[in-house]
């Protein structure tokens, strides 16, 4: 499986650890119950997976990153390297859960079909990820530097950020019944600073710039400073999240 984005679990925890901390709301929607079998799709280093286990569920974690899977396994979790766009599970899970991962899987129909197949009848799919207009300023800055250097558009925006309507249609095509779906702004403080954020989440763009890598990083940060950095020097990412609960009919 090709992996365009390489992940360092250690750096992710250091510079983007807030991602798991902000996942409490979607875990509440899932409401894991003792004895349930749950698939954590895009489990990362397992920071939220351990909460599902603590609730008494049996959890299988899958992620595309070998380093993240290794970090999850070090926590004692049942984690495996799996392509989320090519899930191959039978109807064995009571629930599929995902936080901050689906926007990295642009073939949304393939993901939804795989999730549907993995669920038992009446199984539920609960997820949160980037929705339409997520990181709009950041994406615009990326597109600016990419176009100026004739780089592939996908380097600037590899993500899938749908509207509620568009994602509801994806789920319904797969056979799901959408129970609830909402998109909401969530301005998110970035304690490590914007330079660290963009390096963590879009390293391939800067790597493609070769010897100009550091200069392009500086350019992106400068473009974002007027809108995402306050008078005290604090950075905030312009997040918009999409949260959904859907059910596989009996």
3D architecture notes:
With 250 residues, the protein is of the alpha/beta class. The protein has a domain of 169 residues: Rossmann fold, CATH 3.40.50.150. The chain has 12 helices and 9 strands. A 7-stranded mixed beta sheet has the order 3-2-1-4-5-9-6, with helices on both faces. Strands 7-8 form a two-stranded antiparallel sheet. Helix 6 crosses helix 9, helix 7 runs antiparallel to helix 12 and helix 10 packs across helix 12. About 2% of the residues have low confidence.
Name the features:
seven-stranded mixed beta sheet, single chain, 22% strand, 41% helix, two-stranded antiparallel ribbon, 250 residues, Rossmann fold, alpha/beta
Question: What is the fold's blueprint, element by element?
Answer:
Elements: H1 9-16, H2 18-21, H3 24-30, E1 37-41, H4 49-54, E2 58-63, H5 66-74, E3 78-81, E4 93-99, H6 108-118, E5 119-130, H7 136-148, H8 153-156, H9 164-174, E6 177-185, E7 188-189, H10 194-201, H11 203-207, H12 213-228, E8 236-237, E9 240-247
Parallel strand pairs: 1-2, 1-4, 2-3, 4-5
Antiparallel strand pairs: 5-9, 6-9, 7-8
Helix pairs in contact: 6-9, 7-12, 10-12
Brief rundown of the structure:
The protein has 250 residues and is an alpha/beta fold. 41% of the residues lie in helices and 22% in strands.
């Amino acid at each position: 499986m090709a992996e365009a984005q390489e992940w360092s679990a250690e750096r992710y925890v250091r510079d983007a650890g807030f991602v798991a901390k902000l996942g409490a709301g979607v875990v509440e929607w899932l409401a894991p119950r003792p004895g349930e079998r749950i698939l954590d799709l895009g489990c990362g280093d397992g920071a939220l997976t351990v909460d599902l286990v603590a609730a008494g569920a049996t959890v299988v974690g899958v992620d595309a990153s070998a380093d993240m899977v290794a970090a999850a396994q070090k926590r004692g979790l049942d984690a495996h390297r799996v392509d989320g766009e090519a899930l191959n599970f039978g109807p064995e899970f009571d629930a599929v859960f995902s936080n901050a991962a689906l926007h990295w899987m642009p073939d949304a129909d393939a993901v939804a079909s795989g999730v549907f197949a993995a669920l038992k009848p009446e199984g539920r799919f609960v997820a949160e990820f980037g929705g339409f207009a997520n990181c709009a300023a950041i994406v615009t800055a990326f597109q600016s530097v990419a176009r100026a250097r004739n780089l592939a558009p996908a380097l600037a925006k590899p993500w899938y950020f749908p509207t509620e309507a568009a994602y509801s249609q994806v789920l319904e095509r797969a056979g799901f019944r959408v129970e609830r779906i909402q998109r909401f702004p969530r301005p998110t403080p970035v304690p490590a600073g914007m330079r660290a954020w963009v390096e963590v989440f879009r390293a391939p763009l800067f790597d493609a710039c070769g010897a100009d890598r550091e200069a392009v990083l500086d350019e992106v940060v400068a473009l974002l400073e007027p809108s995402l950095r306050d008078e005290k020097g604090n950075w905030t990412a312009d997040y918009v999240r999409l949260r959904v609960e859907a059910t596989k009919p009996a």
